[in-house]
Amino acid sequence: MDEPDQPPTRAPLFRELLPESIVLEESTPDRFGDDLSELTEGEAALMAKAVAKRRREYTAGRVLARRAAARLGLGPIEVLPREDRSPGWPDGVVGSITHTKGHVAVALARAEAFRGVGLDVEQSEPLKLRLWDMICTDEDRAMLARHDEPERSLLAKIVFSAKEAAYKAQFAITEQFLGFSAMHIDLDVPNARFVATFRQEAGEVFRPGDTLVGRFVRTERLVATAVVIER
Question: What is the topology classification, in CATH, of domain 15-112?
Answer without folding.
Answer: Ribosomal Protein L22; Chain A (3.90.470)
